[in-house]
């Protein structure tokens, strides 16, 4: 029995098992086995076959956005519309066969947008080069899921299932669980809050499934057994995801209104160029980028070329962005903007910068 057969057998077993207190440990064990087999599927053992043409694209710009979706939902059309890159687009499926990078220029930032080939059901098991497509999506800062508004919510649930099975967790916070393997002493289990979804027996069963008999486990929040399996495996990637519904010009206004009110969703039309500026705003928001301006002594700030940094960055990050040697001669900074009480205000290295702040660095 191959790994794929084992996975489908376990999935069928989970589907037909009733969920109640008597079966929760059995289900937890099945989920741990499922995660282990999926991990083996992603990392095949033994000799690898001859390398084919990869999707490896050099990371450039300030951030990276992966554009994934089923064939013929308008991914290439969107890339052609909001970037200066041309990606072949036609009215038949699988027009795009490799990864095509484009650059969105927005608020002085260069955001790399990757147009990936359409993925089909079963992509997580390697169908239609799905594994390479998903591997590129794991390296992005934000996943942009392109969906056809005329197909309802079917595409969204299918894609989420495919990405979930290869360790991509969309719009989910990382579970606050401390886990460390030890050489002896058994399993030390503790929690700082009441647990309702998982318990010590479940944790021991999961660890035994992974042949771990000595470990330290501390739950800092009420997490499920799936969250704990993710922490043990250590491979899942937690990414923000933006659901982009295209072709809204072909559905009713009531349906557009319903879709637009769903969380993390944006409605657009590439053909009629509707709502594309709002989409860029949302990409900027989800990437968590800010723009900081620099100022020389007794001169006006340079508001043309700002520094593009991540949200919650400190003055130290600003110094690194200008030049790495500034840290050694840094005395203090003068900041104008919303992050300070007075303008200007003297700040140290650990001060957190806000969007569109102005900073002047004073050297020793």
Q: Which residues sit in consecutive blocks of at least 5 with pLDDT less than 50?
A: 47-52
Query: Main sheet?
Result: 6 strands, mixed
The total count of helices amounts to 11
Strand order of the largest sheet: 2-3-1-4-10-11
The SSE order reads: HHEHEEHEHEEEHEHEEHEHEEHHEEE
Count of beta strands: 16
Look at the helices and sheets and give the structural class.
alpha/beta
* N-to-C CA distance: 69 Å
Quote the average pLDDT.
85
Q: Using only CA atoms, what is the Rg? A: 24 Å
Strand content: 15-25%
Give the overall silhouette: globular
Percentage of residues assigned to helices? 25-40%
SSE layout and pairing:
Blueprint: H1 3-16, H2 24-42, E1 63-69, H3 75-82, E2 100-106, E3 109-115, H4 130-138, E4 142-148, H5 154-165, E5 168-170, E6 177-181, E7 187-191, H6 200-209, E8 215-219, H7 225-233, E9 237-239, E10 241-246, H8 253-260, E11 265-267, H9 276-287, E12 289-294, E13 307-310, H10 315-322, H11 326-329, E14 330-336, E15 345-347, E16 358-363
Parallel strand pairs: 1-3, 1-4, 4-10, 5-9, 7-8, 10-11, 12-16
Antiparallel strand pairs: 2-3, 6-8, 12-13, 14-15, 14-16
Helix pairs in contact: 1-2, 2-6, 2-7, 6-7
Written description of the protein model:
With 364 residues, the chain is of the alpha/beta class. It is built from eleven helices and 16 strands. It is globular, with a radius of gyration of 24 Å. Helix content is 31%, strand content 23%. The longest helix has 19 residues, at 24-42. It has helices spanning 3-16, 24-42, 75-82, 130-138, 154-165, 200-209, 225-233, 253-260, 276-287, 315-322, 326-329; strands spanning 63-69, 100-106, 109-115, 142-148, 168-170, 177-181, 187-191, 215-219, 237-239, 241-246, 265-267, 289-294, 307-310, 330-336, 345-347, 358-363. Strand 2 (100-106) and strand 3 (109-115) form a beta hairpin. The termini are far apart.
